[in-house]
């Protein structure tokens, strides 16, 4: 029996429409085989550049319908979704530029040298696409981390067809985006089988186990991501699984920073932690603020700002329940106070809030470790540290994160060898991105970005945002003594494509 | 009770001396904690360069004793071990040069740009060391893939302390090499805890599970490597496991190549497959030769050469038993012939040999799949293919490999769009290194080298030989809006270390 896939309005909880049916094991098999069969059509870099640009155009052309549908399914609102669509098309165009640049191929050429002991043969290395990539869409970015998002864009840029497991929170948006991508494929003369969108939990499990799937990208929960990671590792032939599972995104506020601008930091924190109803992967979920007056002022400012934030609708009813349960469980812990209580709002909304706790509660393993786990939604925990020594001890207790943030006083930033440098050094092992005097929400799409970090922020050392995200879908190959006429263009002496290369140790750009 | 670790002479099977005792779980814990505690001493790139160069010097200074001990434990012979020592010190020096070059840090800098939508913050990315690395030594290279080998050299170059599980086939060599590395550390002012050598199977299992171990490198069997890979993936916080597990290294000989130089190819094959008594990771274990006269001539030439090869001693008695059993099991398969029978030689030696089988036996899954598995030692399988169509079908049946080799006729190499190009394209998905008209044994240590490949050749996309092996022990970090005074030197605007970088999209070398 076909299992229907419904689009649901999170503002009302009502079903909007039946969008599709869940994919069966044989649907998954057919999609992967079809993608595998046409993978060679993506070998030409010119057609990949054209595809990525056409995809941006198709998404833009259907923008009004995409935004309206995404808003109806996610309650994220038109302004946010307008920005997200721009970000999504921007990512596609940025990867087209990376393909044109060619630096991601990491070409290294060593000419034969008979004078060496032992003699060196001619060796030429570049990177080739892995094959069919499974993409697992996130709930919280129905465009930028979903069907047409960074995983899809980077995989297509690398030359890999994608089979995408849609997120159940926005199936209608997923279908529209998938159709736009397939129209783009057809427009540039590619078979539409290079992109397939599938629905259903079981389909997702089948997908990661399929022998012709070569790699997977995932953004979601620790629980779901870890199960898929384990399945990828347990295959007869294990495959790379690039998963972004969860992040607390700790923020450290120094004594001097709090003394200098407690109100500003409290207000900035309120804005960052409630952005998108607290559903960003980079939401600051734990803040280390000093005990004492400046820290009190920060807490007061945060409370004042949060009291003015309107309740918001979460992405789905299950998340709302998990949020309310998570808040409740944390609030009940010994010594935890809730100056502004997060919880149920009117209708299906939730209200933002925050908790406070003394640092000593978190120094040793125990029930308070729950506070070191991400709680998805508009809540954060302010941990009051007694002194620098306690702060350092607390930092050793954190799991891996996407981001870690340091708020410094104006003078501290100037002291190259002082406490600020030590704090930055203590934060670096905790995260993939380390910020100073800013907020982690809002992830710039740019070559130097890194959106990943120690587990559980990522199951690999990779990033899902920024130019280097393409590296995930490639593997190196070296050709030894291959006749020049048989070499790919990127490896020929005359470098007809103008690719950056390292030749006999010298870089040519 | 302490379990003794004995050095054994494979030529006689006699114990030479007790070298050490097996490490207990608490020994492993102590070694990892000590390494972790001193990891920051490797942060300075100058001291790492000095360390790698001092290590090469210390190994060279103790070269006579190292070679004599290694020969007594492995029976590989002085000429081979002299070459291997040179290769080992060469690797250490090459990684010193890579550290000095700095390109491996993959620095990307994007300056802030307020004119963009959304505005771009200042982002600066480079790579930081992962932490303590576990190294699992190989049996077949007691220096170059063992204690002072490529995994150790690349990990130290990256800034990671190492805890090394010695291979039981050469414990005395391992101790000598470990002592040389520790002397080098002390000479350049580093704590010797940056390198520890441990013995014992259980110690190896404990090591990969230790919470403070951040990554592992392994060269060895599919069975042992897969068990450690599984343990690394099953940890509460999974770690990267870079394992080289096994490789068949298929060779394709075209009709025209066989027609042109059958005798030369047969003789080259005999040399490559018996080098080091067939114990190279890159031994050509399966050769696809055409049916018909030129192929017959190739087989005859191989047989003639092999009949002249003296029996050799394998690395240990267990390997000898496995080799004899493997040969026996393969020889019994329907349709398999043994023109020169591999098997027992005088004393503890084994004689080289080869098998032949018709291609049709390997077209479908069945008991003949055993021929697609590596058999460690001096044996190869010549598969006679009927025509190009059958050859293409056979190639789809191969597992992943370190290498794949193509022997072409002189004219074929010139035909850019012909059958040769198609064959090269069919071999590329099978291996990390693709050779034309050469032999895969002898892996050049050079920036463009890639020693890895699809599973089981490697459990990751990485290489264990060549400059890019350093990438395995690093992860990217981006600093956002960090004050200039707090940035590491590699990320400062004036680039005091002269590191290659990509700044605002432009490469600076």
UniProtKB/TrEMBL annotation, chains A, B:
Domain Aldehyde dehydrogenase: 8-474
Pfam families: Aldedh
Keywords: Oxidoreductase
Record's signal peptide: none
Name of the featured protein: Aldehyde dehydrogenase (NADP(+))
